Structure formats: C-alpha cells, structure tokens
C-alpha cells in the first residue's frame, strides 16, 4: 500500500546565519497530513530558524524540505509559487510582520492580490476577517490603530487566505492574553478540521502545545550536542485541540 507523503518533511537540515557556526544542525522533522506537531526547546536553540526553513523563507546550508512529497526547489520568491503558497506562516510579533502602511483589509488580501486573484480578494476579505473573529469595522484601520491581538488575527487571516496545506505558527500567541490565545487556536483547529491541513506550532508554552498538538518535538541546543529531535505524545488526559480551560500567558 502506498503511504501518503508527509505534508512537511525536513531532512537533515543545517541552517543559520554563519556557515561556520550553524544554529540548526542535521535536524529532521516530519508532519503528516492533518497532523499537528509542537516544536519546543530552549530559547535560542533555533526553533524560529527551523520554522523559517519549513516556510521556505530561509535557505539552509544543507538538507532538504519536502512539501507533500515534493522537494522544495527554491527559497523565498524563487520558490515555485505552488510550493510557496502551500505553506502559511504566522510569526510572534505581528507589528514586524505587517506592513504599517496597509489597512487590515489590504493586509489580509495581500497574498490573494500577490497571486493575481483580485476579484477573490474583494470577495473573500470580509469572510476571512470573520473567520478569525475580526469585526469588519476594523478593516479600514492600519496596524497602529488596532491592538496586538486584533493585528495578529489579521495576520492569521492573511496566512489562511491561500488555503495552505501546511500552517507554521511561530509563537503565534506569545504576546496575547489567554482568551485571544484560545480564540486563535480555535480558528487554526477549525481550519485544520475543515481542510486536513498540517500544523507546525513553535513555542515555549509546553502546556499549550501539549494540549493543542498531536505530539511535540524537543529541539536541543546544538551547542549541547544537537539532534535528533525527541518526540513526545500528549498525556492521555489531554486532547488534540483546545480544552475548556484557557492556558495562562507567559
Ligand atoms: N537574522 C539573524 N542573524 C543572525 N543571527 C540570528 C538571526 N536570527 C536569529 N539569530 C540567532 O540564531 C540563534 C537561533 O535563533 P532562533 O530565533 O532560531 O531561536 P529560537 O529557538 O526560536 O529562540 P526563541 O525561543 O528565543 O525565540 C540565536 O542565537 C539567534 O541570536
């Protein structure tokens, strides 16, 4: 029987900002279709770097990235569009990830416009905003006129606009309060349930990631010896998705 290829596979990735001292070394990670994997590890161990490699935003020194079984053939704008748009990404700090000149409507519609879908952008912006709990009254505002939570909702809507098969959430909720965290996790889970998309969620909040994800991976510090990643299934009492109790902020 042929096995469905993983939605995301990182094979022996070595990456960083100085070829002589990479922050990620020979690291492999697989996220199956429909699976949610949490990536934990000490600060500075390279989780965000690995997340950027997974989202084809950072070119590794070594190793390969495969999306749906197909090896990525480029990085950033040089990646083929079908691969680039197969991964949606949300970062920790929405103010760094959002062009301050754009209204929230334009921000959400950015990927649709950038891929030439102007009519779809007009038709779906309101629906996308609604799907992340963003009132249409906020769509005409610019990033400095909304809260971090409202801006992060817009960034999540932007990441979902092209209906990615893989969603990478890099500390998406780290700056948010417990109720906004719960709301955004619920949005991601509803999206995954309806589309079968895979999730790679990076963070420090072990309680949140162990509740949210099917399994977690521990990323060691390369200075302390490097991979392999250590896998951990959730406790029997925790459930995939988000339970009734909101996690605390950190
Ligand atoms: N653009 C950059 N240029 C140079 N070094 C960088 C850059 N971005 C990150 N680094 C360094 O790479 C290392 C790994 O950073 P990274 O952000 O991937 O770690 P992290 O595990 O996500 O950390 P945290 O949990 O604190 O967010 C750190 O030592 C960091 O200082």
From TrEMBL:
Belongs to the ABC transporter superfamily. Keywords: ATP-binding, Nucleotide-binding, Transport. Residues 8-246 form the ABC transporter domain. The lineage of its organism: Bacteria, Bacillati, Actinomycetota, Actinomycetes, Kitasatosporales. This is ATP-binding cassette domain-containing protein. Pfam families: ABC_tran. GO terms for biological process: transmembrane transport. Residues 221-250 are annotated as: Disordered. SUPFAM superfamilies: P-loop containing nucleoside triphosphate hydrolases. One of its GO terms (molecular function) is ATP hydrolysis activity. It comes from Streptomyces reniochalinae.
